[in-house]
Amino acid sequence: MKYWRRPLDKNKIKTPKGHIYVIPDRCKGCGFCIEFCPKGVLEESKEINRKGYHLPKIADGKEDDCMNCDFCMLICPEFAIYTEEGE
Question: What does the pLDDT look like over 25-41, one tens digit per residue?
Answer without folding.
Answer: 999 999 999 999 999 99
